[in-house]
Amino acid sequence: MNTQTQESQCPSMPRLNEPAPDFTAKTTHGMRSLSDYRGRWLILFSHPADFTPVCTTEFIAFSKAYPQFQALNCDLLGLSIDSTFAHIAWTRTIREKFGVEVPFPIIEDLSMQVAHSYGMIQPGESDTSAVRATYVIDPEGKLRAMVLYPMTNGRSIAEFLRILKALQTSDAHGVATPENWKEGEAVIVPPPATTADADARMAGEDECTDWFFCKRSLESAATT
Ligand code: BEZ
Fold first, then answer.
1. Rounded to an integer, what distance in angstroms lies between the CA atom of residue 81 and that of residue 110?
2. Of residues 55, 74, 208, 214, which has the active-site annotation?
3. What is the pLDDT of residue 204?
4. 3-state class of 126 per DSSP?
5. Among 54, 135, 203, 213, which one is most buried in terms of CB atoms within 10 A?
6. Is 208 a catalytic residue?
7. Which residues of the chain have a pLDDT value below 70?
8. DSSP, res 103
9. What structural domains does the chain harbor?
10. What distance in Å separates the CA atoms of residue 171 and residue 149, rounded to the nearest whole number?
11. For residues 10 and 119, what is the distance between their CA atoms, to the nearest angstrom?
């Protein structure tokens, strides 16, 4: 397989827990670099094209949820292979027709440099548009979660609020979170590393169904 075929069939993807690919890019709010977001969480997300209906619904939902992301020390940054003029015209249309102000910047990535470095171009979907890719980047600039959706189906913005809160909870308490975990629910205690740990946890205060399956309420831990 030659290099070009290989590249088009296997887009390079960033890896979890490694530094997110660096960029400096033109946006609707001026130039932005990944380093501008140091000390804050960032959700970088791509959409296939401006002035398309599914993308419009996603932008409306991201915009409405923006205060909740901000309250979690998280900024939003959009991207598509469209010009800044197209982004400006589209966000003005969203304001005029849907009454929603888009409060976050959108990258103009006509060269597709940022899109390629993040694996947003998936040739099975399109060679010229980004898929619906979403990356959660932590305050140290490390990539902590990524999700790719196809062109045809919109994302659940509530899911990104949920995973952001879950990651922050895992970092703060050294725990994992179960399927569809929501703030206030019990968390998962990481599995024991030794037989002694396994015995100890069954005798401890966590709610253990078995030695490998223990849950803990952070709320009761905080009040005791
Ligand atoms: C949309 O956002 O509506 C859309 C974009 C690309 C392909 C299909 C739908």
1. 5
2. 55
3. 87
4. coil
5. 135
6. no
7. 1-10, 220-224
8. -
9. 3-154 (3.40.30.10), 187-223 (no CATH)
10. 26
11. 9
